[in-house]
Specification:
The structure holds 2 protein chains of 2 kinds.
Chain A (H helix, E strand, L loop, with lengths): L2 E6 L5 E2 L2 E2 L2 E2 L6 E2 L2 E4 L4 E4 L5 E4 L5 E3 L7 E4 L3 E3 L11 E4 L7 E6 L8 E6 L6 E4 L10 E11 L5 E6 L3 E6 L5 E9 L6 E4 L10 E11 L14 E4 L3 E3 L11 E10 L7 E6 L7 E6 L5 E7 L4 E8 L7 E8 L3 E5 L2 E6 L10 E3 L11 E9 L5 H8 L1
Antiparallel strand pairs in A: 1-33, 2-3, 3-6, 4-5, 6-23, 7-8, 9-10, 10-33, 11-22, 12-15, 13-14, 14-21, 15-20, 16-19, 16-21, 17-18, 17-20, 24-29, 24-33, 25-26, 25-32, 26-27, 27-28, 29-30, 30-31
Chain B lengths: L1 E7 L2 H9 L2 E3 L5 E3 L3 E7 L2 E3 L2 E2 L5 E3 L2 E2 L3 E7 L13 E2 L6 E3 L1
Antiparallel strand pairs in B: 1-9, 1-10, 2-3, 4-9, 5-8, 6-7
The chains are: A mainly beta, B mainly beta.
């Protein structure tokens, strides 16, 4: 067997318009880059734990969850919290009977800049709102997610409320910035705000927090931060496809291995396809599908499925090591060291020439995190598959 | 590549316009047939509303009329047929591409 394509696993090389997959068999290095596009800038958490802006068409390697990094692919989203980088416009409003609190600007934020603010809640604070520059939002209906970086000034554990027409209590227990999230469905124009309201279940006052980078976005889960300065801003979708060539892949047998996680279990199709780039879903497919936490491995020969296997993951938003072996009358799906499905009937006769983070022709984009991809041009043994996915 | 703002009468009209740039494949997936990014903006806040301590609206915000859509046309130099008349050019744009 030969490992004819590698991608990631801490070995990242990116530039405008591409990210590098490669073949390094026998010490001979052959680049097999993915084409990459995104028609806007975007942000990512870098190796130092800070948020960094990257320009158009530059792939993002995200170090938020892992020191080795992961390719981050996201859909189009807009931040409707229109003054997220204008903390001088943020306000402290006491609706209840408590004493006035204070906001202090100029605190160090997640970019390493000074757009964070410290909020000091007096001990008798009741029904306080921190508004991030506006009380109304242009996002008035539908799936909405809000997020903000927050930390305590002094160690402890405090509950605050996030609200944006819908509400929830979140716990803050660190003096390092943590991003907290809330998703729901909006039916009014109320803008994202943060509250301290002991009568509604938050902690009592008498403590201080530092917050930065509020985001109110149109979707059922939060995505990477989009800075705003007086108006809504949109980050456009990532597209990554076209790695390898006909020499890289074996039409009749092989193994596609991916260490991946989804951004959310949101009931959408998100596929990785090894095909020819012109026929939808032709060839080898790994798919997140609308069914919750299901991973599907499929081989489509252009007219029918030679193999269609699936298994339920514990959580598709956690990283899983997934290998799909395809060979005539010998298909297997391995996840995290365990063979979870097999199929002993089916031909393998599709032309395979490129690997893409979509369904093969641009639909069903894979939005998620990818720590690594490997391709082997021979069917691996069970022992090799167990080792690979463990 | 051009970046344009459009304001349609309502969401239904906007969706109809956008749908013309999608085909449906054998699996029922909508596949875009033009290289473009459609950003559905809906309405803009022209004047802030007021809310009570429960978050209930006291004074509604004043929102822009119509249904706004921004489009980044990657391979066009001007709006496609049927879109030109819906172009708007706000003096103080309340939305932009990152």
């Amino acid at each position: 067997m030969a490992n004819t394509l590698k991608f990631g696993s801490g070995n990242w090389a990116t530039k405008e318009g591409s990210t590098l997959a490669y073949n390094d068999e026998n010490g001979n290095f052959k680049p097999l880059p993915f084409d990459f596009s995104r028609d806007s800038s975007a942000t990512v958490v870098n190796k130092y734990g800070l948020i960094e802006v990257v320009g158009n068409d530059i792939p993002r390697i995200d170090y938020k969850d892992d020191a080795k990094g992961a390719l981050l692919l996201e859909p189009t989203r807009s931040n409707y919290s229109a003054s997220s980088e204008l903390p001088s416009t943020w306000t402290y409003t006491e609706f209840g009977s408590g004493s006035a609190g204070t906001i202090t600007t100029g605190k160090t934020d997640m970019f390493g800049g000074t757009n964070a603010v410290q909020v000091d809640f007096p001990s008798d604070a009741e029904n306080v709102s921190i508004l991030f520059g506006s009380s109304s939002s242009g996002l008035t209906s539908g799936d909405t997610s809000v997020s903000i970086y927050i930390k305590l000034v002094e160690s402890g554990s405090k509950d605050v409320q996030l609200r944006c027409n819908f509400t929830s209590i979140v716990n803050v227990n660190s003096t390092e910035f943590t991003r907290v999230y809330l998703s729901g469905t909006k039916t009014s124009s109320e803008a994202f705000n943060l509250k301290l309201r002991p009568s509604a279940g938050t902690s009592s006052g008498g403590f201080s927090i530092i917050v930065c980078h509020p985001q109110e976005e149109n979707g059922s889960y939060a995505t990477s931060y989009i800075p705003t300065q007086g108006g809504a801003v949109t980050r456009l979708a990532d597209e990554c496809n076209g790695a390898g060539n006909a020499d890289t892949f074996n039409d009749s047998e092989g193994v596609l291995y991916a260490e991946i996680s989804a951004l959310a279990d949101d009931g959408t199709n998100r596929w990785i396809n090894l095909g020819n780039g012109t026929s939808s879903e032709l060839g080898v497919n790994l798919r997140y599908v609308p069914t919750s936490n299901l991973i599907v491995a499929a081989f489509y020969n252009g007219t029918s499925f030679s193999c269609l296997m699936s298994t339920e993951l514990n959580s598709l938003t956690q990283f899983n090591k997934i290998a799909f072996k395809y060979k005539e009358n010998d298909f297997a799906l391995w996840v995290n060291g365990i063979e979870l499905d097999t199929d002993v009937s089916g031909a393998t006769n599709a032309p395979l020439s490129q690997l893409s983070f979509d369904g093969g022709t641009g639909a069903n984009d894979f939005y998620g995190n990818t720590k690594q991809i490997q391709y082997f041009n021979k069917a691996l043994t069970d022992a090799e598959l167990k080792t690979l996915t463990s | 590549m051009i970046y344009k703002r459009y304001e349609f009468n309502d969401q239904e009209q906007a969706e109809e316009k956008i749908d013309t740039f999608f085909d449906v494949d054998e699996e029922g997936n909508k596949v875009q047939n033009v290289k473009a990014a459609f950003i559905k903006l809906n309405k803009f806040v022209l004047e802030q509303g007021e809310y009570d301590e429960q978050g209930e609206e006291i004074t509604p915000p004043i929102l822009s009329s119509g249904y706004a859509v921004d489009v980044l046309w990657n391979e066009l130099d001007e709006s496609p047929y049927g879109w030109k008349s819906y172009e708007v050019e706000p003096k103080n744009p309340k939305h932009k591409i990152f």
